[in-house]
């Protein structure tokens, strides 16, 4: 019986957490909020992944993301917006070359 009670409590807490995230306009942990090819002829991709607390990580990934890949660059940001801006700048810089 204790396990069932704790599972109900966990579901209730998760629902509350989801509501707070919606209210604050932030994504759940692990959500990819941005993804774009870095170069048209290579297999590198720029990905922004939310941390669930308002921040996010911008990464340049090589390979077959998300299955078999190598992280070539990674930077953590305090907000999802800053991480997306960095990702867009990375993609834009390459387009100018």
Q: How much strand content do the residues show?
A: 25-35%
Number of strands: 4
Oligomer category: single chain
Task: Give the helix level as a range of percent.
Answer: 40-55%
Low-confidence stretches: none
CATH topology category name: Viral Envelope Glycoprotein, domain 2
Counting DSSP H or I runs of 4 or more residues, the number of helices is: 2
What order do the helices and strands follow? HEEEEH
Kindly, what is the distance between the CA atoms of the first and last residues, rounded to a whole number of angstroms?
63 Å
Largest sheet, if any?
A: 4 strands, antiparallel
Number of domains: 1
C-alpha-based Rg, rounded: 17 Å
Strand pairing plus helix content: what structural class?
alpha+beta
Q: If you had to describe this structure to a student in words, what would you say it looks like?
A:
Helix content is 41%, strand content 33%. It is of the alpha+beta class and 97 residues long. The protein has one domain: Viral Envelope Glycoprotein, domain 2 (2-Layer Sandwich). It has a four-stranded antiparallel β-sheet with strand order 1-2-3-4. The longest helix is centred in the first third of the chain and has 23 residues.
């Amino acid at each position: 019986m204790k396990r069932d009670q704790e599972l109900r409590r966990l579901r209730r807490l998760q629902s509350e957490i989801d509501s707070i995230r919606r209210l604050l306009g932030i994504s759940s942990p692990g959500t990819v909020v941005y993804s774009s090819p870095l170069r048209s002829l290579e297999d590198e991709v720029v990905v922004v992944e939310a941390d669930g607390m308002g921040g996010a990580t911008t990464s340049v990934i090589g390979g077959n993301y998300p299955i078999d890949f190598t992280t070539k660059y990674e930077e953590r940001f305090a907000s999802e917006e800053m991480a997306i801006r960095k990702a867009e700048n990375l993609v834009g810089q390459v387009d100018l070359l």
